[in-house]
Amino acid sequence: MSRRILVTGASGTVGRQVTAHLLEAGAEVRALTRGPADLESVHGDLSVPDSLHTAVQGVEAVFLVWPFASAEGLEAVLALAADHARQVVYLSSAAVRDHERQAEHLIERSGLEWTILRPHAFAANTLRWAEQIRAEGVVSGPYGEAAMSLVHERDIAAVAVRALTQDGHAGAVHELTGPHSLTQAEQVRVIGEAIGSPVRWAETSPDDARRQMLARGWPPEVVDGILEAQAEMTLAPSPVTTTVEEITARPARTFRSWAAEHAHAFRATT
Ligand SMILES: NC(=O)c1ccc[n+]([C@@H]2O[C@H](COP(=O)([O-])OP(=O)(O)OC[C@H]3O[C@@H](n4cnc5c(N)ncnc54)[C@H](OP(=O)(O)O)[C@@H]3O)[C@@H](O)[C@H]2O)c1
């Protein structure tokens, strides 16, 4: 198999894995970067459509990460892609906030053959706790009982690669999760088991968490969105789907296996 595929977000959590899986599958990958291009990568900025002409030349498919809080500018990028490619696989989100919904509509109307991936929260999000865990063996936060079905980034990539290289995914919306729903307090406990040293969840108030996130410069609407979603997940755990296994023919990776692979990031260096 030798298809030329443009991977955007190629240095990111999912795009890096998509690139690796595609290369393993024998595809020709063009990795988009805002930095200087090298043998494997091509320069381009998704917020500047004119910078993408070289990137889209001769590609058959695009793995699209849209790392912005608005769909503005996407239509122009899709029009450019549609001049060259016939297919797009878009990394959306199970949260389907306004801009993601708008992006999905634009993709469905782009004239490209499309597949939409809607992953739930990434297992890699827990890396935000690494510093606290290394320093104190404690994670402080609100809504310890919020339960989410964290998905391993390699499973998202594995599904993306199937959609990019095999038939049967045109017009599909794939909702992707890990195999279990785990509360935040349970996630922290699993990380403790992976590093061989207990880690404790310390519940704080949502107001304190809000103040801290705002002090770090996070936009208020993002902070409120996160806290509202977590509050909801204390009442209704996020669901578990079987999509990863159905598409990749292997069980979705557990958070336990993700934590074991990433134990080094959480272990205190003495
Ligand atoms: N985290 C979650 O739980 C979650 C859940 C569901 C969906 N998602 C979605 O996943 C997406 C993020 O994916 P990720 O976590 O794999 O990415 P990531 O690790 O946050 O990395 C962002 C990527 O986007 C690239 N990028 C940023 N601005 C760019 C620009 N102007 N032009 C071209 N490339 C640009 C970066 O490349 P550079 O090397 O140039 O910086 C980088 O490769 C978001 O759309 C998010 O909504 C996330």
Structure description:
Helix content is 41%, strand content 17%. Strand 5 (87-91), helix 4 (98-108) and strand 6 form a beta-alpha-beta unit. Helix 1 (13-24) crosses helix 6, helix 7 (184-195) crosses helix 11 (255-261) and helix 8 (206-215) runs antiparallel to helix 9. The model has no long low-confidence stretch (mean pLDDT 96). It has helices at residues 13-24, 53-56, 74-82, 98-108, 130-136, 153-165, 184-195, 206-215, 220-235, 243-248, 255-261, 263-266; strands at residues 4-7, 28-33, 41-43, 61-65, 87-91, 113-119, 138-141, 147-148, 172-176, 182-183, 200-203. The strands form three sheets. A seven-stranded parallel sheet has the order 3-2-1-4-5-6-9, with helices on both faces. Strands 7-11 form a two-stranded parallel sheet. The protein has a two-stranded antiparallel sheet with strand order 8-10. The protein is globular, with a radius of gyration of 19 Å. The chain is α/β, with parallel strands linked by helices and 270 residues long. It binds NADP nicotinamide-adenine-dinucleotide phosphate. The site of NADP nicotinamide-adenine-dinucleotide phosphate (NAP) has 23 residues, from helix 1 and strand 2.
Concise summary:
Helix content is 41%, strand content 17%. With 270 residues, it is α/β, with parallel strands linked by helices. Strands 3-2-1-4-5-6-9 form a 7-stranded parallel β-sheet, sandwiched between helices.
